[in-house]
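quick one before i forget lol
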Amino acid sequence: MFKNLVTDVFFDLDHTLWDFEKNSALTFKKIFEQNGVNVVLSDFLKVYIPINLQYWKLYREERVTKAELRYQRLKKAFDSLGVYLADDSINILSEDYIEHLSTFNHIFPGTIEILDYLKPNYRLHIITNGFEEIQEKKLRTSNIRDYFEVIVNSEMAGVKKPDPKIFQLALNRAQVEPESALMIGDSLEADIIGAKNLGIHVLHFNSHQEPRHEVSDIIHHLDEIKSFL
């Protein structure tokens, strides 16, 4: 579908190539053991995951700071479980989480295969709202850094997806026009609608099993990209 139109493919990183939920769960398992936090991991993750997504949305909308995001997502999760932790303990867990998260390297099934498939014919790039200090580590730890030419993050851009400025910065750095670019990501709001508003072709990798929509084509496995490119 995009085969004769696109020269450059932009990927989101977390929840699209890098398996955030799996790596996050392993990180929490490690830091809870290290810090003697006595909660059932599955119970914690059940409440934490939606809270984390909610706070990332607030962060994208400039309604909370990075520090508030990192603290409140943990505080709210423990409160939901009726577990009291002092602020100092929450802050230590927050720092440990950021320190260890990028040491895990699980990527979605088919990631290497689709990057190998695309690399000979397209220039590949990353646009991410993730924190600058760990996104590069994630790419290197999971052995996919060398596939990508331009990597733009929200701290570098000064704005977060879906703000058009971050997409425009990525296009400028890649020296490509919107009509020759394709954005692939998991967030309908941040990745798909954000890129589409700038005239970029879009493909929604629905890793959260969200309801069907008419905004763009939807895939559920990275291998399906081959049907479009």
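fyi DSSP finds nine helices and six strands in the chain.
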